[in-house]
Amino acid sequence: MIDLVFWPLIAAFVITGIHVYLGLHVVTRGVIFIDLALAQVAALGSTVGILMGLDHDSTGSYMMALVFTFIGSAFFSYVRSSNQKVPQEAIIGITYVVCAAAMILLFSKSAEGSEHLNHFLVGSILFITPEKIGYMALLYSAIGLFHWKYRDRFFEVSRSHLNTKSLDRSVRFWDFLFYVTFGFVVTVSVKIAGVLLVFSYLIIPTVAALIFQDSIRGRLIFGWSFGILGSLAGMFVSISLDVPTGAAIVVTFGIMLAILGIFHLRR
Questions:
Q1: Considering the entire predicted model, what is its pTM?
Q2: CATH code for the part of the protein at 2-266
Q3: Residue 27 and residue 203 in contact, taking contact as beta carbons nearer than 8 Å
């Protein structure tokens, strides 16, 4: 069993590392469903690529997903910085629903449509290769180093989420940079883990960390520990019960969060 989950576990650790950090920004900004929306935008881009004859794992399909993600990133950055009467979270939710519906419509006439939809939803992390993990680790490390170098600026911009009427060009620029780097991560993660698991890695460990930790460092360590333990437990449940790995990890995360929440309330 260890041989079967070794590389998927390594992939889960890499995904956990960057998503917990980005999750802190997302929760601070109050745009909880931004990951879900961008993941769905990336999936829609891949869908268009597949219908154009591109292979699911091809470079062309990835570039198509990346283009759609960049467009979504620019859109969300603009919406946040404009003087709008509609909350950004509502626009994010609408984007997710419309992209999900569009993907269903595009695949409705395809013989393999249901298979592709299932792949985009729960992913195929159990079958990841060392080469994909290496590429993902290099990309996420580069993005992580960039965010670490300018961490004060990124957190300053994230904390200014309530101020949408007087954002200067500098804030808008850094806001756009956040969404672009975020889009890179989401595009790669969705290809591997699927929409549901990507959202879970971003939000659930972060929420658990917020309950028990106050400092950024403490939240990162707690969130990383939660993500690693949950991934390990979810994969063993998946193999033992012969159920989809992505869904098993998501449910495991949910159960762990519920247990921690009950423990916190009783304490």
A1: 0.81
A2: 1.10.3470.10
A3: yes
